[in-house]
Each structure stands twice: as structure tokens, then as C-alpha cells.
Amino acid sequence: MAHDDALSYLEKLDSRSRGTAVLDALAEMVERAGLSVGDRLPPEVSLASTLGVGRSTIREALNRWEGLGLINRRRGDGTYLAARVQSAHGVAPTMVRLEGEALLRLLEVRRTLEQEVVRRAAINANPQQRKRIAALCVALLNEVDAGRSWTEADAAFHGAIYEASGNPMFAQILRSLGQAQERSSGSPFGSDEFALASFPLHRLLADAVVAGDADGASEAVNRMLDAVEEDIRRLIA
């Protein structure tokens, strides 16, 4: 389908919203126009004119989509779909579902990398590193049990495991993956209640690394990521 034809599936918005209205309208346009991966979106100026919003509003929405890995921008050529986009038809809002699907794609990459990282950590960690990993796990679970924000404690725990792997590139890649996906304001994937079921499994991971059990560490991290995936799928169902 020609990208200009997709504009016929857009209508002017009632308000000059900079929030979900534009994102929802774009998702509905993509779905109704039958655009698929590799298809080019209409130009920003055409989208802005058809929706009756400023070009900066469209650019902001497309920046959000780019951060979710939904589009590729080719300088001087246009904006192309890089992943499936559908509007929401159930309880979950469109952006929650799109964020969740992007997280699932990210989780596939993390699963492959983290299995290797924890195996190497179980094999290569020195006694001081094993002791630190155990202590940081206790600190993390204390924060979770107390209902406090666990973000920093979680980063410290996983950072110690990345360091113990013996390859600093793992830490750089995995941290960049964690920062790659910006959560929208109020996103359920950024709350302290997200993926709570995975935290008891951190103890299994810590114990396996401390014991030098590479297979046990790999199994533990797989179970942790399974719990995260289940929570994502629940939220976007």
C-alpha cells in the first residue's frame, strides 16, 4: 500500500493532545491501512496536517515508537515499520501493549546473554565476589519485602554478577539493554509492583553462583525471566 493511502484512515483529533491520542491514532492507522513490517509511513508533515496537530507532536510520538523498536528512520528516505503494530481491542491501552511487546523482544536478547553471563560468573567469581553477590541478594530481597523501591538494589546485584563473569563487555551490553527501553509515564512496567514473582528466584541465582553451579545459575536466570515474561503477557493480555 502506498504510504499516502494510509492517511485516509486518520481523522483530526478533537484536542491537540501530546499524549496517547496521537499514538493511538497512529496505531489504528497502521492496522486499518494494513501496513506491515518494511512499509513506509506517511511523512511527518502529512500526519500532522491530517490529525490537526503540530509537527513536533508527531515527531515526539514517532520518537516514542523508535524507542520501542517499532520504526526505523532512514535519513532522506522516510520512516519504516520495523515491528508489528496493532491498536488495542481489549482492556490494556495501546501503548501498554506496544511497550509490553517491545519488552518481550528485549527479553529474548537478555535471555541469551544472561544465561552465558551467570554461567561464567559461577565459574570465574573469586571468593570476595561470591560473598558480595550473596550480600547484595539479601539487601535486594530486604528492599522488596519492605515494599521499598528495589531498582538500585537490583542493579547492584546484577552488576556484581556481570563483574564476576570476568568480561566487562557483558556488563556494558546488558546495562545498555536495560536503558534501551524508556517507559512512558505511569507505565506498569516501570512500577515497583512489576515482576515481583521473579524476586524469590534471585536467591536461587545467588546461591548457584556462590556455589559455583553453572547449570543451576543458568536454570535460575531462565526461571526469573520466565516470571518476568509471564507478568508482561498478563499485563498486555
Can you lay out the helices and strands and say which pair or pack?
Elements: H1 20-33, H2 44-51, H3 55-67, E1 71-74, E2 78-81, H4 94-124, H5 127-145, H6 151-164, H7 168-180, H8 200-211, H9 214-236
Antiparallel strand pairs: 1-2
Structure notes:
The protein has 237 residues and is mainly α. It has 2 domains: 3-81, Winged helix-like DNA-binding domain superfamily/Winged helix DNA-binding domain (Arc Repressor Mutant, subunit A, Orthogonal Bundle), CATH 1.10.10.10; 94-236, Up-down Bundle (Four Helix Bundle (Hemerythrin (Met), subunit A)). It has a two-stranded antiparallel sheet with strand order 1-2. β1 and β2 form a beta hairpin. It is elongated and about 65 Å long. The chain is built from 9 helices and 2 strands. The longest helix is centred in the middle third of the chain and has 31 residues, at 94-124. The mean pLDDT is 86.
Outline:
InterPro entries: GntR_C, TF_FadR/GntR_C, Tscrpt_reg_HTH_GntR, WH-like_DNA-bd_sf, WH_DNA-bd_sf. The chain has helices spanning 20-33, 44-51, 55-67, 94-124, 127-145, 151-164, 168-180, 200-211, 214-236, and strands at 71-74, 78-81.
Task: Looking at this protein, list some descriptive labels.
mainly alpha, Arc Repressor Mutant, subunit A, Four Helix Bundle (Hemerythrin (Met), subunit A), 2 domains, 62% helix, elongated
N-to-C SSE string, H for helix and E for strand: HHHEEHHHHHH
Average the pLDDT over all residues and give the rounded result: 86
* Ends apart, CA distance between termini: 29 Å
Q: How much helical structure, as a percent, in the residues?
A: 55-70%
Number of helices: 9
**Radius of gyration from the CA trace?**
21 Å
What fold name stands as the CATH topology of the largest domain? Answer: Four Helix Bundle (Hemerythrin (Met), subunit A)
CATH architecture of the largest domain: Up-down Bundle
Output the CATH class name of the largest domain. Answer: Mainly Alpha
